[in-house]
Amino acid sequence: MDIARSLRAEARRANERRLLVLAGDPDRTRERAAAALDAADVADTETTVVGPEPFLACEHHEQSRAEELLGRTRTAVVLDTHEELRPDAVGRTVGAVDGGGLYVLLAPPLDTWPEERDGFDASLAVPPFDVADVTGHFRRRFVETLRAHRGIAIVDADAGTVEQDGLTNPPPSRPVPSPTLPADAWFRSETYAQCLTDDQQDAVRAFESLRTTSEAVVVEADRGRGKSSAAGLAAGNLAVGGRDVLVTAPQYRSAAEVFARAGNLLEALGVDFARDRASNPQRLDVTDAGCVRYAPPDEAALLPEDPDVVIVDEAAALPVRRLEQFLEASAVAFTTTVHGYEGAGRGFSVRFRDRLAESDHAVTDVSMTTPIRYGDADPVEVWAFRALLLDARPPVDQLITDATPETVEYRRLSAADLLADEHLLREVFGLLVLAHYRTEPSDLARLLDAPNLTVRALTHEGHVVAVTLLAQEGGLSADTRATMYEGGRVRGNMLPDVLSTQLRDEAAGIPVGQRVLRIATHAAVRSRGLGSTLLSEIKAEFADHVDWLGVSYGATPDLVRFWADNGYNTVHLATSRNATSGEYSVVMLDPCSDDGAALAARHGEWFQDRIAAVLSDPLDDCDPDVVRAVLRATDGERPVSLSEWEWRLVAGVPGGASVLDTNPKPFRELTRQHLSNPADATALSPREERLLVRKVLQSHAWATVAEELEFVSERECMRTLGGIVERLTRLYGDPWVQEELDRHQ
């Protein structure tokens, strides 16, 4: 109790946070947590417990629901890790503690904690491995950071002894000078008087551009920098100026600060406004002017009532495809967390920024670095960044700019190698984070502890320039295969799972493979063949030990061509979009043994059998360039097989004697053949191949196809398709078919 009281007093004096670790028996740590918070004068209404039991009379969430704290501020958060330690829960809860507050961690005895296996460890034990194969490297490193960092008190709850008191004796916090009010601002001066830092003022100024159309603002910041408050101040001003401002976020609680600041500003401005508490409590209507209203992402993406401005708060937590829909708004702003791995990860910065740059919006970028919730020397933030590698970065460009396939070294990196070299670990994980849209703190634990994962890298003069994370899959027992085939949940083994459950191949779990889970090349040395070099080294290492190498990813034309160029062939294209990337995922295999070749051959054949049918139904909106690339990446020759009547039907189209709609099947078969295994790859232009995909395979209306592919008329589009059919008929038809074709010319 004395420690908690002293920690809280020091935290309040310095406007920083402190971390209190209570280690020992679960019941005893919970009892001491209750006493500590009472001694520290933290009210239940200002406390949240995250863990298995609601042992305090306060807000409670399971670790799996830790995202409930995103965008919120609490005086104390208690993370109970006795049943499991989820790294993502740490990342999502630590940022919710306000300056002057306490982050309380309940844990087993620290000396033995790394050797124990908990619920999260069980999730890493994917078949054929079990929980005994999971290591404790992540927790060992986690405990080391707790003992090494300032501002962290550690108490043995069983013995009642203090290992370290966590007191840093900092100087009292100094008031932050108020920013100088801008002289030429459009927003009311009272707005800028409420800004607490220059960063926040700059962000609010950027929002002024949203008064005009075709503008976009991106505000990036770590948690606690006041980005949501800046959005709220801007929303209030825009509403006073007559704008209809639509706000969205993963859930309303995440956007609550936007509405709180907008409402406070409207009161400070003395304008008349109403809160619609009866039917929609998330709405502010300014009399004779505009409004600020909330809608959940799926509704907001439809731009209901045609808003003037859309503000997307915590954008990184939304799928890329959903974010793309907001680019249809006249003016739009995105606020996003840089290092917090909010929601699904870094889809915003990795995938969406390219889409935003290609849009018709002029983009204004703002970066906020000065903390508002707590002091800029806050030791808990320093600890969290190191413990979860939230600020991990690949090497700076200058260190690796001369890297080529001839200068790099292929390295097999074990968890022991990474733990022994913190710099190497940060480069590896930093490159994975920046190059992939879905890397979270839990991925650090998987990297260090999961028995099915291995890391391979290319280094240049000791620095990482390319890295891949491989997952062993397959080699499953008959019982496990049966469970998977019958729809039971089997952790990991993503490729065997897809091939077994969706494609009904129970034997797909027998061959053993290595799936490329992640692959990344440093941005400064891309397009030099380093990714292909890494894949070549991987095949050389594993070819004699596995049946296949595989990969699954959100398909884009460039990515599909990259994998095809490296020997991987299409066996499946998902019929629903990836929830994070918004893209259709493709599965590709590179066989290494006879068993692997048999697996790839039968699934490649089945893919050819079904692709025309799914493209005209669930995949009718798939990008035609993705379809072209996926089909071109199929393996094996499969000649066109049409009946005499079907050939006569096809041969009659160019001359107008027959029409495609009479029976699309032979035209789809001809298209599939040419796109997957062309007799002459130069016979058709890319635009003509897109026409085949959109009209023949996906069955889009003539008007839609003509507009998308920029034909001057539907008639021209039809004539072009007739010419394409003629060329394909001459390429693949027997002599008598060509005579039939000539008969109608």
Automatic annotation (TrEMBL):
UniProt main location, coarse: cytoplasm
Ranges for domain TcmA/NAT10 helicase: 218-391
Keywords: Acyltransferase, ATP-binding, Cytoplasm, Nucleotide-binding, RNA-binding, Transferase, tRNA processing, tRNA-binding
Reactions the enzyme catalyzes: a cytidine in mRNA + acetyl-CoA + ATP + H2O = an N(4)-acetylcytidine in mRNA + ADP + phosphate + CoA + H(+); cytidine(34) in elongator tRNA(Met) + acetyl-CoA + ATP + H2O = N(4)-acetylcytidine(34) in elongator tRNA(Met) + ADP + phosphate + CoA + H(+); a cytidine in tRNA + acetyl-CoA + ATP + H2O = an N(4)-acetylcytidine in tRNA + ADP + phosphate + CoA + H(+); a cytidine in RNA + acetyl-CoA + ATP + H2O = an N(4)-acetylcytidine in RNA + ADP + phosphate + CoA + H(+)
GO biological process, one term: tRNA acetylation
Record's keyword annotation contains RNA-binding: yes
Domain of life: Archaea
Positions of ATP binding: Q200, R373
Residues of the TmcA/NAT10 N-terminal domain: 4-157
GO cellular component: cytoplasm
Sequence similarity: Belongs to the TmcA family.
Function: Catalyzes the formation of N(4)-acetylcytidine (ac(4)C) at the wobble position of tRNA(Met), by using acetyl-CoA as an acetyl donor and ATP (or GTP).
Gene: tmcA
GO function terms (MF aspect): 18S rRNA cytidine N-acetyltransferase activity; ATP binding; mRNA N-acetyltransferase activity; tRNA binding; tRNA cytidine N4-acetyltransferase activity
Domain N-acetyltransferase as annotated: residue spans: 533-591
Name of the protein this chain belongs to: tRNA(Met) cytidine acetyltransferase TmcA
Keyword Acyltransferase: yes
Residues passing through the membrane, by range: none
PANTHER family (alphabetical): N-ACETYLTRANSFERASE 10, RNA CYTIDINE ACETYLTRANSFERASE
Catalytic activity, EC: 2.3.1.193
Binding residue positions for acetyl-CoA: I519, A520, T521
